[in-house]
Amino acid sequence: MMLIPCPWCGPRNETEFHYGGQADVACPGDPHAVSDAEWAGFLFFRDNPKGVFTERWMHRSGCRRWFTVRRDTATNEIHDAGAHEDEERTVTV
Amino acid sequence: MAPRTPGADLPDHPDRLWRSADPESSYDVVIVGGGGHGLATAYYLAVNHGITNIAVLERGWLAGGNMARNTTIIRSNYLWDESAGLYEHALKLWEGLEDELDYPLLFSQRGVLNLAHSLQEVRDGVRRVGANRLNGIDAEWLDTEQVAEACPILNTSPDLRYPVLGATWQPRAGIAKHDHVAWGFARALDLLGVDLVEGCEVTGFERVGDRVIGVETTRGPIRAGRVALAAAGHTSVLADTLGLRLPLQSHPLQALVSELLEPVHPTVVMSNAVHVYVSQAHKGELVLGAGIDSYNSYGQRGAFHTIERELAAAVELFPMFSRAHVVRTWAGVVDVTPDASAIMGPTPFEGLYVNCGWGTGGFKATPGVGWCFAHTIANGEPHPLNAPFGLERFTTGALIDEHGAAGVAH
Ligand SMILES: Cc1cc2nc3c(=O)[nH]c(=O)nc-3n(C[C@H](O)[C@H](O)[C@H](O)COP(=O)(O)OP(=O)(O)OC[C@H]3O[C@@H](n4cnc5c(N)ncnc54)[C@H](O)[C@@H]3O)c2cc1C
Ligand SMILES: [Zn+2]
User: Fold this and answer.
1) Is any Cβ of chain A less than 8 angstroms from the Cβ of B305?
2) Contact B63, B40 (CB under 8 A)
3) CB within 6 Å of ligand 1 — which residues?
4) What is the pLDDT of residues B231-273, one digit of tens each?
5) What percent helix, strand, coil does chain A show, rounded to 5?
6) How far is it, in rounded angstroms, from Cα B44 to Cα B17?
7) How far apart are the C-alpha atoms of A5 and A68, rounded to whole Å?
8) Which CA distances in Å does B250 have to B232, B247, B340?
């Protein structure tokens, strides 16, 4: 079991959460203006690092809010979520 | 009837079946990953295409990844023509594989039931049976009574929370002994002179422009005419070193076994709706699995609540299992694609081929993957059976959506 740090409710059992995958995936503003490859990138291609991953979780059985967590996918260690804004992201490009 | 000793059917543990080779400085083909797919690919490269100057590089011990961890369900009753082609080709190869490899694989065609618990699942099941038959695959729709006949220990009473309304039935489906499959291929490869290199992790690629000419490993650089990836859950880690983006997400997938029991379960039962599947291994343990853990992870472990839910579902479907004990649980790392179908073919890098994305269900495809991937590597272009499974389908939109048939997975 993992403890997921909800910024509003504190650390809670992972069973209370819904996983949302990679954070910061932007939907192209005008789908017609992008190439098929770019659209495919948005729809289907996500980072899959072995290491620190910046990802979304939703506190389904609690406050029902979405938030971002930085978690090491090799160890499940959760990195400080508050500090993530200026930390380098190790997700792949 | 006298009770049978659990494990009485199993052959004795074999002597060493292959030599663990030291790597040479160069090969015609280097295969990254010594799981079932890597081994089968090397085998058909040698046997179908006459290429034997091959190394299979495995970072751990041979077939210690998902090949050692899967629940060995073999079937071909997928929905779409593309999948039917590939999985049925694999199933036909399974039917001759013990003779081909001259090694006992304990392939047991005991049939698989895919249960339906809602009207929608009934419709989907009936449709899939129809699609399977059009593709020449053995498939039948069974009503509740027929399901009870096929698997008498299943609770088919109408007062279940999710009653069994029927099931698809593929008689030719079954299980095999996964370790024996790996050992059978490894033994054959050793006789063919192929180098199986264990404890050799590929850390990067040697390139000239967009051409891959070799690999960097923890045991030094190795040159290769062609490089083929068969690294399952770790494919993204390798592709990232090239900046090659693949539509994969790696997740934990767990399974568990009970203690050894007398034979009670005659077939394989899978349920997408209540999320569990069960067979009974040759030795006698009940083998259970469910779906992936939801989050990305490369740790070979998952969460306890996943196991708790699958056991709750199992006990509801099979009341007699409530007295069995869980003796072991484990997890593998599976590479999941957006359409629940695999990716197999050339890459934007010349000389680099990829086979990945088999997620929760690639064991059943092992000989078919080997056959088709070997063709792809030997000819530089896909076999007709794996042509629809190229990377480009995510851009063209020609997806092969098998979420229904892949279901709880496997
Ligand atoms: C719990 C579980 C249950 C499953 N049940 C079923 C089932 O019932 N039916 C079914 O059809 N499928 C099932 N599967 C899926 C199936 O196991 C996989 O799809 C299949 O094994 C993948 O192919 P493989 O055997 O080549 O993978 P693996 O055995 O994982 O082989 C990949 C190998 O690559 C090696 N590797 C990775 N990176 C490197 C590197 N950088 N350098 C060198 N080597 C590397 C790994 O160590 C590994 O040995 C299940 C999987 C799991 C985890
Ligand atoms: Zn909360």
Assistant:
1) yes
2) no
3) B 32-38, 57-60, 63-67, 69-73, 201-202, 230-232, 234, 238, 253-255, 289, 332, 334, 358, 360-364, 410
4) 999 999 999 999 999 999 999 999 999 999 999 999 999 999 9
5) 20, 30, 50
6) 19
7) 10
8) 9, 10, 13
Query: Which ipTM value was assigned to this complex?
Result: 0.93
B352-356 and B343-346: which strand pairing?
A: antiparallel
Residue B100 in tokens:
């081909």
CA B275 to CA B79: how far, in whole Å?
Answer: 19
Assigned token pair, B138: 């053995």
Contact B396 A71 (CB under 8 A): no
> Which atom of ligand 1 is closest in space to residue B72's alpha carbon?
8
**Alpha-helix runs per DSSP H in B318-402:** 366-379, 393-396
The amino acid sitting at A56 is: R
Mean pLDDT (chain B) is 95
* Helix, coil or strand: residue B164: coil
3-class state of residue A65 by DSSP: coil
- Taking the model in full, what pTM does it have? 0.95
Three-class secondary structure of residue B317 per DSSP = helix
- DSSP classification of residue B100: H
Distance from CA of B300 to the nearest CA of A (A): 9
Higher pLDDT: B404 or A46? It is A46
